[in-house]
Amino acid sequence: MPIPEHRDLLFTLLTREMEGSRNKAEEVKGITYFLDHTSEVFLVVLGRETAGFFSSITGHRWIFAGVGEYSSFLLRLALTPEEGWEQRKIRTSGYSLSYFQHRGKGLQVALPDTHLLIVSSGEIEFPLKQFVLPRTDPSRYFQPPICPDRRSGSHPSTTNEKLTASAAGTKTPFSLYIPKTGISLVTVLLESVIPIGNTEFTPEAFCMNLYKEDFTYYFANGSIFFQKAEQARSMSVLFRLAIAGWFLQQVGKGVPTSVQIRVNGSTIEFSGIPFSRETIAQFFDSMVDTKTRTYPW
Question: Which residue of 97, 159, 222, 260 has the fewest CB atoms within a 10 Å radius of its CB?
C-alpha cells in the first residue's frame, strides 16, 4: 500500500480496533507519526488460523513492514521495560541484529535500518534473516508476487476495452495478492460465488488492486485464477450474479457502467467495481476475524 495516496484507508484500518482502548489518544498519535514518516507498507499473513486484526490477533502469524524515515531514538524511548518491552538479539552468520519483544502480548518490533520498520506477531526472525542479513542461500529468497496491473500501471481488462478516467483512479493502487494456500482468508468475499467445500472450483490465486477515486471511494480491479478455462467460465456466471445482487442490495440500482467482467483463458478479470473506504475496512477485518465476518457484496 503506497502512502500518502492511501493514508486515509490505512488510518481507518489501524484505528478500527481501538474502540475502548485506554491509551487511544497515544495510539492515534503513534499511528499519525508512522503515517507521516512512511512511503509504503507491506502486510504478510501467515497460516490459516484466524482471530482479530493487528494488536488483537491471537494465534495468527503476521508481518507488517513500513518503508520510510524513522527515528531509532523515538523507538527506544517508546519501547521501555516499564511498558513491558525487552530487547533481544538475532545472531547468525557472524551478524547480529536487535529487536524488541513485548512480554505480555508477544509483539515484536525491529528497526534494522532507519528506512525499515518491522512489526510481527512472533515471526520477526524470518524477515530479518531473509531481507536484512546477507543472504546465504539465494534460492530461498522470497519474491513477493505482484498483481499484473500493479506492475504496469494499466488495468487487466483494458487490452481491447476503454475505461473512463474515473475508473482508472490513481496510478499507485493498493494491491492484495492471495495464493491458493490463503484462499480461506477471502472466503467471505468468494463464498457467495464459489460452492463451499467443492475443491474443484477453488481458485489458484486471487489478486485485487484498489485505485483511489476520491476521499471515500475506491475502484477495484484484478483477477481470479483457476486451473482450467471451463472453471473460470462457470464461476464467471456466479461472479456476475453476486456483483449484481450486491449493488441491488446496497444502492438499489443496477451494476454501474464502470464495472467490467470477462474471462481470459483460465482467469476471471474484473475492473471498475466501486467500494467505499468503510466497506474495504470491514472486508479486511472479515478476512482475519471469523467472529465478525461481513459480506462486501
Answer: 159
CA dihedral 249, 250, 251, 256 (to 10 degrees): -90
Strands 260-264, 116-120: pairing is unpaired
Query: What was the pLDDT predicted at 87?
Result: 93
- Buried residues in 143-157 as b, exposed as e (16+ CB within 10 A): eeeebbbbeeeebbb
User: Which distant-in-sequence residues (6+ apart) come within 8 Å of 41 by Cβ?
Assistant: 1, 3, 10, 64, 65, 66, 67
Lowest-confidence region among 57-66, 150-159, 221-230, 243-252: 150-159
Instruction: State the pairing for strand pair 260-264/267-276.
Output: antiparallel
State the alpha helices, DSSP H only, in 157-276: 165-168, 187-190, 229-251
Q: Which pLDDT value is given to residue 166?
A: 40
- Dist CA 62 CA 194 (whole Å): 26
Q: Residue 203's closest CA among 213, 212, 194?
A: 194
- DSSP alpha helix (H) spans, the chain: 7-15, 24-36, 72-78, 125-127, 148-152, 165-168, 187-190, 229-251, 277-288
Peptide bond connecting 4 to the previous residue in cis, omega within 30 degrees of 0:
yes
**What is the per-residue pLDDT across 182-218, written as a single tens digit (0 to 9) for each?**
777 666 566 655 555 566 778 888 889 999 888 788 9
Report how far residue 173's alpha carbon sits from residue 158's, in angstroms, rounded to the nearest whole number.
Answer: 16
